[in-house]
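Mods, move this if it's the wrong board.
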Amino acid sequence: MRRFLVILEKTSTGYSAYSPDVPGCIATGSTKRIAEKNIYDAIQFHLEGLKDEKLELPTSSTEAEVMVFN
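Not the wrong board. Structure tokens:
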């Protein structure tokens, strides 16, 4: 099992999503839920392709923290 940080951003037409640890793998969706499903599927597909080609799988090295400011 692998874990990757996924960044979701609100856009003017819905949401976009990407993982800094999986370069080039992005997804969009008209809702946050759809974007989450699409990025999950995109990363899964990408990892399967890397495995099939016997290429090195990415490692998770990105961390995130929510900070609150006044």
